[in-house]
C-alpha cells in the first residue's frame, strides 16, 4: 500500500511538472504576442546555434530561424532571406540570439584573413576608445595608424608612435568589425588592438590610463616630419 501511494505521488508530481511547464510556455508565448500588439512586426533571421567565423552563408540554414520582432528593434541591415548573403561568409563568430545582419558577412578572402600578423617579437595591446577617435569608426584590421596622445595636466598633445599595425578591431560587445573602411562607420566604443615593441606598449597604456588616445590613418608613404610636443601657447601661435 505504501509503495502504491509513493508511486501515485511520483506520477502526480511528474504530471504537475508537465502541466506547469506547458502553462509557462503558453504564458511566455502569450506575453510575446501581447508585446507585438500595436507594433509593426518584421520577419528577420535570428541565429539559433553558434556560427563559426568563415562559415558560408549557404551553410547556415540549420542554424537560423525566422522570428517576428517589432520593427523598432530590427537591427540595421537585418537579413530576412539568406539569398541576400550568397557568396559571402561569416566575418566573425555569430552567437545565438543575434539577428543576421549584412555587415557581419564578407567576401571569403576578407573574412578568413583573421588577425593581422604582427612583426616577429612584437607585443599586442588592446585599447578602448570612442569611435570618433578611431578614425571616425572606420579603423579596420590591417590598417597602419599613428597614435596621438593628449593630456590635460599639463595640456600637451603629441604623435607618439608612427605606422603602428592594427591587428584587430571589435565593438564593446566583442563583435569583430569587418568590411572595408568605406563601409558605414561603427558608432559607440571600439576595442582596437595594436602591435608594437615593449617600450611603445608602456607608452600607449600610460596614455590610455591617464590621458586620451587618437588614431590617425598613416600609410607607409605618410610623412611625419615636423612633429613636436604641442602645448596651448604653441598652438595659439
Walk me through the structure.
The chain is of the alpha+beta class. The protein has 2 domains: 41-111, Alpha-Beta Complex (Type Iii Antifreeze Protein Isoform Hplc 12); 123-236. Helices cover 24% and strands 29% of the residues. The protein is built from 4 helices and 10 strands, in the order H-E-E-E-E-H-E-E-E-E-H-E-E-H. The strands form 3 sheets. Strands 5, 6, 7, 8, 9 and 10 form a 6-stranded antiparallel sheet that branches. Strands 1-2 form a two-stranded antiparallel ribbon. Strands 3-4 form a two-stranded antiparallel sheet. The longest helix has 35 residues, at 2-36. It is elongated. It starts with a helix and ends with a helix. 21% of the residues are buried. The mean pLDDT is 81.
